[in-house]
Specification:
This is DUF3352 domain-containing protein. Keywords: Membrane, Transmembrane, Transmembrane helix. The longest helix has 17 residues. The protein is globular. By secondary structure, the chain is an alpha+beta fold. Helix 2 packs across helix 5, helix 10 packs antiparallel against helix 14 and helix 25 runs antiparallel to helix 26.
């Protein structure tokens, strides 16, 4: 067990009133950039930088080295299993920029490449990866925020080690080689079994180890539930616990949170106080940040005092209470990149209007050669529900909102929510079709653009609302605000040809390119087919050859969203040719 500074790129510490501010730099800390980046944050950041080369393999995970009181967690594997790693690198090698800039082979040690990037500036001259790091550095790492019963959560990093004794000696060697001191000024660590815990001090690191002995994050039922909801394992994993909402509440109630909150109409210059930007720039703690806000009764709030504090609106507090957790995973699967997430459905008053599959069915019925489409459904009463929701977030502004709506109705002749709900019906799709011709658009105008909207609703009622809008917008817009009826839908389009296509053609939902990126449970979708319309994106970027070559491997992209009871799900998926 040893104590060592972690450098300015060591763990950041969460703050109940705002983002953590870096400690003042000095030469000693600057020389420890490599150390902090390598053993804590760098390991996780590398997961993003080298994203396409990593997968979780079986074996011990960082969640086993963290306590059940962990409130936020992000992990990465830097040495994934061989078969999946090969698949990922083969996919990335389709992109010339990857080969030119990274040139990573399937048998490369990702940890060594990261080490080379971190130390190439010469900050740790004489340090050798094979001799000084590889003998003890494992393949998995995580950063986490932990509730240790303090006023603020404790930020730590955990790194897998393959030899506890060599890891402790190796860290000491890193400190010495990188010019560090042993006074514990900037950080400390504890090696416990197969893991190294790095924190602001050795004492904090030991507290994390002791807390883990009483129960691990990996064994926590909520962690298992939410990571399970996020689907199969991937090369990066994220988790936020229910308890994390407490700190969101603390932020909202702080002067910083209330000053910036859109729910309270706050700003850095509004209200009965003021905000000292120079003071805030120099602040390094939550108390110092609070002191940068002044009120009518004082020129500066004393650190730790309640001056300038605000109560959380009860409606916002209820949403905080209703939040149960969230998790996300980034993975490769059959040559595609996926980001899947699941989160607590803490906004049921809003999401209840989005649970129909009407919008997705409409997208499925679009022409098979569709370039891009967005579709969603809307339940009865959605507009009034949205208005009520906004008012609950800003109850003090409810009267103002009503006044503004009344003025809007007077000036436009539109009725809210009736006309808005009629206009968008039960579901809407916005789509772009094939036939994109930049020259024709430049010469012929908007009517050459194959863009259209389909609305599930009565075409006559929708046209009546559009006529009100046309009266305001003028004759130039009127020609684009005429609907036609196609198979139970109201159709608008800039191009007459594309209008006819939308009225009659279908088949997108049955195509492989669509089903590969859209989840079968989707209730809201965004879809892009890069192969459609003769590789439309490659054509549009032909004047930029380097960019065009790197876009050519793209096949399709999809975003799916759906609500399942108490859980909101989402999936982003990108495929390549």
């Amino acid at each position: 067990m040893s104590t060592t500074p972690g450098g300015p790129n060591g763990p950041e510490y969460l703050d109940s009133t705002g983002p953590a501010m870096p400690a003042p730099a000095n030469d000693n800390k600057k020389r420890l950039v490599a150390l902090g980046a390598l053993v804590v944050g760098g390991a996780v950041v590398a997961g993003g930088a080298w994203a396409a080369t990593s997968f979780f393999s079986t074996g011990a995970q960082p969640a086993e080295a963290l306590p059940a009181s962990t409130i936020a967690y992000a992990s990465v594997d830097l040495d994934p299993s061989g078969g999946q790693k090969i698949e990922a690198i083969k996919t990335l090698r389709k992109f010339p920029a990857f080969t030119d800039e990274i040139n990573l082979d399937t048998d490369d040690d990702l940890r060594e490449r990261l080490f080379e990037e971190i130390t190439k500036s010469g900050e740790c001259e004489g340090l050798d990866y094979a001799d000084d790091v590889k003998p003890w550095l494992g393949s998995r790492a995580a950063i986490a925020a932990i509730d240790l019963g303090e006023e603020e959560p404790t930020a730590v990093g955990v790194v897998q080690v393959t030899d506890a004794g060599k890891a402790d000696d190796g860290m000491a060697n890193l400190v010495e080689t990188c010019g560090g001191t042993t006074d514990g000024e900037a950080g400390g660590w504890v090696v416990d079994g197969d893991w190294m815990v790095v924190a602001e001090t050795e004492e904090l690191a030991q507290k994390v180890v002791d807390a883990t002995d009483k129960g691990t994050l990996a064994a926590d039922s909520a962690f298992g539930e939410w990571t399970g909801e996020a689907g199969d394992d991937g090369f990066m994993s994220f988790y936020v616990s229910k308890e994390a909402a407490k700190y969101v509440g603390d932020l909202a109630a702080s002067p910083l949170g209330m000053a910036a909150s859109p729910l309270t109409g706050g700003s850095s210059t509004s209200g009965s106080g003021s905000f000292d930007e120079e003071c805030f720039a120099d602040a390094t703690t939550a108390e110092e940040m609070d002191a940068c806000f002044t009120t009518d009764d004082s020129t500066s709030a004393d650190p730790g005092s309640d001056a300038g504090s605000e109560e959380i609106p009860p409606e916002l507090q209820q949403m905080i209470n209703d939040f149960d957790g969230a998790a996300a995973t980034v993975r490769f699967n059959d040559g595609s990149v996926e980001i899947e997430y699941a989160m607590s459905n803490y906004q049921k008053d809003l999401t209840k209007f989005l649970t129909s599959e009407e919008g997705v069915d409409m997208v499925s019925d679009l022409p098979e050669d569709t370039v891009a489409a967005f579709g969603f459904s809307l339940g009865d009463g959605w507009a009034q529900g949205l208005l009520d929701y906004v008012k609950t977030l800003a109850p003090d502004e409810a009267a103002t909102i009503d006044d503004q709506l009344a003025q809007f109705e007077t000036e436009t002749g539109l009725s809210f929510p009736e006309d808005v709900e009629t206009l968008l019906g039960e579901g809407v799709t916005v789509s772009v079709g094939s036939g994109i011709d930049p020259d024709a658009i430049a010469n012929g105008g908007p009517q050459e653009i194959p863009v259209g909207i389909k609305i599930k609703g009565d075409a006559g009622d929708i046209q009546a609302v559009l006529d009100k809008i046309s009266a305001i917008a003028g004759p130039e817009a009127e020609q684009y605000l005429q609907v036609s009826e196609g198979d139970g839908y109201a159709v608008l389009a800039l191009s007459d040809d594309y209008r006819g296509t939308l009225e009659s053609d279908s088949g997108l939902g049955g195509s492989d390119v669509y089903s590969q990126v859209i989840d079968g449970d989707a209730q809201t979708v965004l879809f892009v087919n890069f192969d459609a319309d003769d590789d439309w994106l490659v054509r549009l970027t032909k004047d930029e050859p380097e960019l065009s070559k790197n876009l050519e491997p793209l096949s399709s992209f999809g975003v799916s969203g759906w609500v399942d009871g108490d859980v909101v799900h989402g999936m982003l998926k990108l495929t390549t040719n």
